[in-house]
Amino acid sequence: MRPCFSQARCVRLALARSTRAEGVNAAVQWSALRARCHQRVDDLLQRTGIPYPWDINQFLDRLERHRGRDIDLCAISWTVGDSCGAWQQHDDHDVIAYADNTSGFHQDHIILHEIGHMISQHRGRCVLSQDEAHRIAPDLAPAAFAHLLERSTGDVEEYEAETIASLIHQRVRVRPQLVIDVVPPAAAQRLSRVEYIFGG
Amino acid sequence: MGVSALFLSTGFVAFLIAGYRGVLRVRGQRKPTEFPLMVIAVALGFAFVFLAPASQAFESELAPSLGRLLSNVCTLVAAFGCLHLMLYVSHPAEQVPAKVRIRLITLLIAVGVMVVMFFASSPPTGTGIFTGLYRSQPTLAVYTLVYASYLGSAVVDLAALALRSIRGARAWLRLGMLLIAAGCVLAAGYLIEKVIGVVSELITASPAESYCPSAFATVGCTFAVGMPALAVLLITLGTTLPTLGPRLEHLIRGLWHRRSLRRLRPLWETLHEALPDIVLATPDPPPTPSLTGEISEQLYWRVIAIRDGLLTLQPYRDPADTRAHRDQADAAGLTGRRRAAAIEAAGIRTTVHRRRHDMPFRGYSVEGNAAAEHGDLTSELSWLTQVSDALTRDELRRVQQS
């Protein structure tokens, strides 16, 4: 079994967001950021599609196939000062930690937030001291935390991840007009064209 | 139902649909298939306007039966639009312009033959009914058979597409495909009856068509007038519903979201006042939402912020408080979801108070807080709005005071 976070820090909930917003480059326009996120989500969902009915595990399966890397989910119970979500990048797989003591909808958002970091190829920064890292995950070498991303650190990357999560999560609610899993590939291609022609 | 009224209203629906597609195009929907879809709707609209007996009376003053010729040509243009669309289904979009040329040439030949045959004949004045003339004027029979053949090929193509797509289509797209298939069946019935009638008259000299006072006066009239009108209505609606349906759904959902946003306000204000950090600060915040999509997005952010707030308050939850709230809910006679929402609302008030006074619950254990349900936005909204309503009602405090 792969090592898993026992806890992680959540600056998103621990720090004042308005304060963190000051750290954001004022030149970064919300509309430009949104356009960038829309593009990333469109590109991703064009390749993975969205399972219907929505299931985060099925979506992660599709993402794994698309990226050619395993993604392990690791449930944590959030406490004050901890992170309610984190992404750890390993050589051959990724680990997403998420708070499980909240609603399923909120859990999905937290996981999608980390996926937002992932598809945006954010580098993040390590926010844990070596002692803290050792405390929360004694089995992991401190270097393994080099790419630990907090769910919300207040910089542009965090807004991007949060926006991507919301965009993906909102697309989930759109009822698909096709069920291409039940037909052969050639018919699926034809059906996609039918939807393209007649669909919105 | 008067034939003129039926045809003119069918034409009006087709024009409305063409207008709707035009609006989509102006708003940025620039799919190459929008052009043939608009051609189909406009051509069918004109076909029915030209064919309405009221219009034909005027058109016949210019040339006898001119309305029928104009209407039939428009119908073939619509059929060409259908064949054009079929190319987009069977070939990649970039190959379609080259392949559509041959279909355009076929259309021009068919229309050319029809025009020559029409003017080579002596069609009657009035409503363009060729009854009893096919045997004496075979040019009119050629005219009708060329028309029926070209239209028939488009109907068969469209029907095959719709029928093959029904299985894999869902929701509005499936309904659209069903309507198109039904429309094609009616159109095929109309064409078969027409061809049989013409051939029968050529062979037996018995009249192929008779004047119809209304669309469904006789079986013959149903085939000749009622079915083509219904077929056009069904096909145009079938091509439009897959785009219009989701937009209507979106609009209705927007109204519901606007209401939910309003209902969440008490809960939101309670949490935001205690935990201002739950608002997502943005570099350049979006303007006040007004469109449906913006409202839905704001609602989404609000739900996430509320959940963040509730998560932050968890360490301040004291099981003893929850037990007391349960007792108060029972004393108030509350049951079911209303009871649960009232207990949750009272718990939020208490934890907000504890948080303000920095009084976390010493015995707090994360294991004690099992993951809540509510897996999608609909169920999440249903629960949170109930909690928000319960905060406003504050029923447990009244029990406490009494």
- State the oligomer: heterodimer
Here the CATH topology of chain A equals Arc Repressor Mutant, subunit A
What is the C-alpha radius of gyration of chain A, as a whole number of Å?
A: 18 Å
Task: Describe the main β-sheet of chain B briefly.
Answer: none
Beta-strand percent range of chain B = under 5%
Widest sheet: strand ordering of chain A: 1-3-2-4
State the shape of chain A.
Answer: globular
**How big is the Rg of chain B?**
33 Å
Q: Find the structural class of chain A using helix and strand composition.
A: alpha+beta
Number of domains of chain A: 1
CATH fold label of the largest domain in chain B:
Rhopdopsin 7-helix transmembrane proteins
Give the tally of β-strands of chain A: 4
Distance between the termini of chain B: 70 Å
Reported CATH architecture of chain A: Orthogonal Bundle
Name of the CATH class of chain A: Mainly Alpha
Distinct helical segment count of chain A: 8
Determine the fraction of residues in helical runs of chain B and give it as a percent range.
over 70%
Question: Biggest interface pair, residues each?
Answer: A-B, 63 and 65 residues
